[in-house]
Amino acid sequence: MYLSSKEGNLSYEITLANSDYIWIWDEFEGSPGDLPGNDIANWGNSLGPYHNRTELVSKLNSLETNFPGLVDISDIGTSYQGNNISLVIITNETSEKFKKEFFLVAHHHARESITIENALYFIDKIVYDFTNGDEEIQEMLNERTIYVVPSLNIDSLDILHLWPEMRKNYHPIDEDGDGIEDENEIITGVDFDDPDETIAEDKPGGVDLNRNYAYQWDYPFGNSDNVTHDTYRGEEPFSEPETLALANFVRQHYFQAAVSLHSGVELIITPWSYDSSYSCPDEEIYDDLGNELALLTGFTHEYLYPCAGEWGDWIYSARGIVSVTLETFHGDDWTYLWDGFNPHANGVISNCQNIVYPGLLYMATYDCPDLAINPSENISSIISEPEPTGKTGFNVIFVIPSFLSFIIIILLVRKRKK
Ligand SMILES: [Zn+2]
C-alpha cells in the first residue's frame, strides 16, 4: 500500500508493506457469546479470542512489520518474571514537527483482560484510519506521538486461565507465612512435600500494581499492608518492576494527558483517588474533562472508593500530567468473577468501538491547560522539551559526545593555565 498526502505545507509519504496484518475486529469476527460458566477456564491458556501473552507480542510485531514509519514497538522494561513490558509508539515518523504526546496504559489488574483489547482496538483503529486517509487521524499523528502499554501486568497472562480471579502481579509471596513463597499448587499441582498439609494457600502473586505508586502509598486506608489482601501495596513505593518501569518511562516524557484502563465498573475517575474528602487543585479542569468523557462514553464521572498509592494520583501530583482512569466494563452476571470484569467474546468489539474508543480519541487529542498543581517531580529545568520524533538516539548520538567534548576542552584549557 502506498500513501501520499498533503496537510498544510507539510507533505509526507509512507510506503506500507503488503499488509497481511489482521485487524482486531477481524480477529473477533464470529467469536462466541455465552459459554457455560467461566469462559476463560474453558478456553485454557489460549484465553480464547482474548489475547494471551504470545498472541499479544506477535500482534505487536506484526503491526511494526506492516506499518513501518508509523508504528514502532519497544518496551518500558521487564516484569517480575522477566517478560518485556511492550510499548507501542504510533506517529507519522516522516513528520518532523515538534510533537505533543499522549500515554495510554492498560491492564494493571490481571483479570481485567478487556482493557488489553480496548487498547489494541484503539491502536488498530488509528492505524487503520491513518492508512485509509482519515484526515482527523492523519492530522493527529502528524502532530502527536501516541504511546501505549497494552499490558502492564504481562506475567499474569500466562496463568490467568488457571486463576481467573487473579488481580495482582505475578510476584511470588509467602502469604501464609510458612516460609515457602507462593506455594502455587494452583499453578504447579499439589505439592505433597508442602509441610503445612493444606493446598493452594498462597495465591499466585503478588502486589496490587495500582496501589504501589509513590503518592500517598502508606495512607491509612485505600490499600493494605497485608500480603494476603487483594489491595496489598508491596514493601515500598515502586517495589515492583512493572510500576517502576512505568514511572521511569513517564519521567522521560511530557504527556498532554494520560489514561489508565480498568474494568469491573463503568466510570471515569480523576484525582484525588486516595481520599474523597480532599479536592485536587485542578478540580474544575477535571470536572470539565469528566463531563466531556461522560458524553462520549456514557460513563459517569465520580468517586469509586479510596485508592491510595494508585497510578492517577501519582502521575498528576509528581509530573503535573492530567490523568484519567477509565473503568470500561461492568458485567451483569457475577456468578463467575471473570464475567463481571470482561464481556463475552462477542461483546468485546462493541465495547471497544462504541464506548471506549470515543473517549480515548478525545484524550489522545487533548491539550493540557495550565494546571494549578505544583508537580513534585517537575524536571522541566532539566529537559527543556521532548525529543523530536524519529530521533530517539539524538541524546546519545549528539548531546552526550558534545558534552564530553566540552568537558575535555575545559580540562585542557585549565591544564594549560596551570
Ligand atoms: Zn482494576
Short description:
The chain has 418 residues and is α/β, with parallel strands linked by helices. Helices cover 32% and strands 15% of the residues.
Describe this structure in words.
By secondary structure, this protein is α/β, with parallel strands linked by helices. The protein has 2 domains: 291 residues, Zn peptidases (Aminopeptidase, 3-Layer(aba) Sandwich); 25 residues. Helices cover 32% and strands 15% of the residues. The protein is built from 12 helices and 10 strands. The strands form 2 sheets. An 8-stranded mixed β-sheet has the order 3-4-6-5-7-10-8-9, sandwiched between helices. It has a two-stranded antiparallel ribbon with strand order 1-2. Helix 4 crosses helix 5, helix 4 crosses helix 11 and helix 8 runs antiparallel to helix 11. It is globular, with a radius of gyration of 23 Å. The termini are far apart. The chain binds zinc ion. Zinc ion binds next to loops.
SSE diagram, text form:
Elements: E1 2-7, E2 10-15, H1 24-27, H2 39-43, H3 53-66, E3 71-78, E4 84-90, E5 100-106, H4 114-131, H5 135-143, E6 144-149, H6 185-188, H7 241-250, E7 255-262, E8 266-269, H8 283-297, E9 300-301, H9 311-319, E10 322-328, H10 337-341, H11 348-364, H12 394-417
Parallel strand pairs: 5-6, 5-7, 7-10, 8-9
Antiparallel strand pairs: 1-2, 3-4, 4-6, 8-10
This protein binds zinc ion (ZN).
Mean pLDDT: 85
Helix content percent band = 25-40%
Estimated structural class: alpha/beta
The coarse silhouette is globular
Low-pLDDT segments: 1-13, 380-401
Count of distinct structural domains = 2
